[in-house]
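Team,

Forwarding the record for the chain on the shared tracking sheet. I've put the sequence and predicted structure together so nobody has to dig through attachments.
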Amino acid sequence: MRFLLVIVLVLGIFFRFTHLEYKVYWYDETITSLRASGYTEEEVAQHFFEKSVVSVTELQRYQHPDGTRSVIDVVKSLAKEDPQHPPLYYGLLHFWFHSIGSSVALTRLLPALLSLLAFPCTYWLCQELFVETGVFASKLPTWLTIGLIAVSPFHLLYSQESRQYSLWTVTTLLSTAALLRAIRLKTRISWVIYTLTLIINLYTFSLAGLVAIAHGLYIILIYGFRHRKILKGYFVASVLGFMVFLPWAWIMIINQSQVKKNLDWTFKFHPKNSELRDIWIQHLGRIFFDINQEPWDFYVHRVLLVLVVYAFYCLCRQTPISVWLLIILLTGVSTLPLMVPDLISGGMRSITARYMIPSLLGVELAIAYLLGRNLANPSLKPWHQKFWQLLLVILFSGSILSCSISAQATSWYNKVHNGENIAVGKIVNQTTHPLLISDAEVGHILSLSHSLNPNVQILLQPSSTFKVYLPTVEELKRFSDVFLYRYHPNKVWLKELAKQQNYKFEPIIFGFAKFSKDQPVFWRVIPI
């Protein structure tokens, strides 16, 4: 068993640093680089508002720091255009850019390294949750949880994405472990440590507030007013933690209109309840198995759902309330506020798996308990033990297979946009002297620039409506090929395009995402 877990851990580390530059550097990641470099989207749009041809190199300057912007500019950029994202990860990335580098591989190296911190944090949490409470005499569930997280295809994807989600995984585990330790020791220093971890968690991602609420409910339901020392310690720690976070909370409040604008996409579509159910099952299944192939994923995820339900059933039946309630609250409180509004009023809050990281960690803890309880039970019959050993091997094998497949891919489900950029880049880069015309949004243009040769010429005017400036036929003659790019064009934009009388537009590439597969995003421009 020990040898198997060592192999799994080594493979998990290996996958995290394999092909960091393979997958498309999509919209959200380019905006992350923009913010960490100290720029705003408005600056990019204003700079390229004039109808002039620029090179990819000039466009790329907004993806790398030039020494003129400080971490203060990073905070200002977020406060102005992305207030729902606290600045901790972006500040870390800013210093990383200056000390290590800002290429795609080096940018993704930071979240990959941060994801390794999940292993010691998981160890600490499982020791506090399972061993210190007397549920287990051995460290078996601790190592099982580490193994599950190590080769989880879900955690692998976000360990290789230049966003704050691998850090949020770490800070969620860290703050929860610190809470259990503070409850156990009841010392001032232990509550100070919890306060610090709470602050770090809140400044990593705004939905960490749901984790803090889960912690508060846990304290109230388990200890109430009977243990005043614990209640006092938690109250002081949480108040101090939220007071330190108050400045950023105030920024979110005064820029509430910008927050609503940024989250407007969660209200654009209203999936049916049956579709939401399938997506939620998919979230659970992708923790352990994700080869992006139907119907295999569909069937496997439903089998895994049965296993998850049984794991929570056993957890609640066989462990003290101090153990199972924490996992239940961590799973439920971070999920229900996203799921229930989608069911009642419609929307897509809960279709994004990364928002449910605390809940998915709770699922992994429940599965680790189930496996550990049965593998460490000497009273089980030999064939029963063999069954659980086989199940463990199957879980690990499915996860390793999933990681092996996704590591070779250029796009995956977490890259919601821009999966077609690599194909676009191959076409443009093969021409001798191309011109790319685009009025796409800043994030989409920046994402495409990572797939283009530095000398490719681009005519830009970032906007949300049709404002493509098409040069005269004579002006276009000095280019070997002319292309037009617009990500996810709406019907109005396409109608305006059809009105252009001096050019023929030949669709070459259609959208990669499910919602845009029937829509062209890349055209060859042919003068008539």
